[in-house]
Amino acid sequence: MITVALPKGRLAQEAARLFINSSLTTIDIIQETRKLIIEDESSNIRFLMVKPFDVPTYVEYGIADMGIVGKDVLLEQGKKVYELLDLGIGKCFIALAGPKGMKEELLNKSEKTIATKFPNITKEYFENVLGEDVQIIKLNGSVELAPILGLSDMIVDIVESGRTLRENGLEVYEKLYDVSARLIINRASLKLKNKIEVIVNHLERMVMQ
To answer: CA torsion 164→168→173→177, rounded to 10°?
Structure first.
């Protein structure tokens, strides 16, 4: 049986719909997403519903043969998995953002403090792209509060529509990376399980339509 790690949350329904529309499963995963393990014996596929940041870990350690996860998570974690396919869903971008109208002032500060859920991405961008050393504060949620309350000068976060930023008096300063969901594969599984190639081909055809 092939085990697939799917992300809970905003990507769950889109990821599940890919498998349904690709005729890879006969189960309506969308209606079953409250379960943590969903087995489709007729298709010989088992789905694990896990936190998005945990998908690469399940795949890297072979608990799951493959998974669907955002490029932001892959950039942040650097796990040892194969990234085979851009699925074209969950599109957004990672941005540097801060208080509206203060872009030049804050970008020109000699000492900057950045709040983010992505400390590795933030460090890599400022050090390797901008050549700057910044203080990074790791937060797990509601990152937009940090500059509003004076915890940080700016934030690095995922942006979809930008509505949350606007409603909190913030704006995008720089677009760092485009993000979409990727299909990742465990290194050993790719070599040993022929059915994985079948699944990949089905998903690739769906994406190309």
So the answer is: -20
